[in-house]
Amino acid sequence: MNSTGYKILRSIARFWGYFPLWFLYIFSDILYYFGYYLFRYRRSVVWKNLMVSFPEKSKSEIKTIEKKFYHNLTDFFAEYIKMARISKEELYKRVHYENPELLKQLADQGKSVFLATGHCGNWEWFGKAIPLNTHHNGIAIYKQLSNKAFEELVKEIRTNHNNLTMLESRTTYRGLKQLNDKNNAVFIAADQSPSGSEQDYWTNFLNHDTAFFNGLEKMAKALDYVVMFVENSRIRRGYYKIKLTPITLQPRQTAPNEITENYVRMLEKAIVEQPDNWLWSHRRWKHQRTKTTTDA
Predict the structure, then answer these.
(1) Is residue 288 in a domain?
(2) Is residue 126 part of a domain?
(3) Does residue 284 form part of some domain?
(4) Closest CA to 129 of 158, 153, 103
(5) How far is 43 from 180, CA to CA, in rounded Å?
(6) Do the Cβ atoms of 213 and 190 come closer than 8 Å?
(7) Which end of the chain is more exposed for a tag (fewer CB within 10 A), N or C?
(8) Per-residue pLDDT reduced to its tens digit, 45-94
């Protein structure tokens, strides 16, 4: 990629990446004020999602979660800017793995693993830190962007200073088959909203009838990959804790939809425990189940 647009975006990203995080957090505080109070960025979407997901909470409790979420969101933007220049040492210090020995054990056994997470905490920092915390070949699944210059910049930011391999979501299985001679640790955010077709897996999630992609489960069984749930908790501003929990060590011995359902329940538990930590601004429940789909 050598386009003018890419060069301009790259120069901007690298310039802002020079600034220390304390300075970028000042920018985050300003952005929070404008986004929340003036432009009211997706306020109606966030409020509706929170009210339906937590009917037991009062409006004042929902308001507290809402404000914390928006401040976390602007912090995420500031931290994303820093990714263009963040060092391995600083990233390792800020993204703490609670039990990395689980990954070492899998690597020693020659087993590949899916690291299934949600849009919690700073999932971008987690993806970038994967090669620093495992002996596996680090891989991240991404969705192709419409703007080619921006997509190339995002891929560069995610992979600079590490050996992370990027696979586009539509070619994931084929790409993993080609890399099947290696021990892979594959980062996948499995909470994105699918089309809502009858091929999706439907279940109750945060008091909503919700569709989930079942591609993770299909690939885990086909490739015989271990599946780990990644709980990405926010410790304090700029610091995150990663806890790994096995969903299955033997995917081919699981019942239909067992992997997906266990992932959903673990994700739901993590969100309930730290509700401001999830990405509430996306329209997660824009699709409804058709009459031909079956209950979970």
Answers:
(1) no
(2) yes
(3) no
(4) 158
(5) 44
(6) yes
(7) N
(8) 999 999 999 999 999 999 999 999 999 999 999 999 999 899 999 999 99
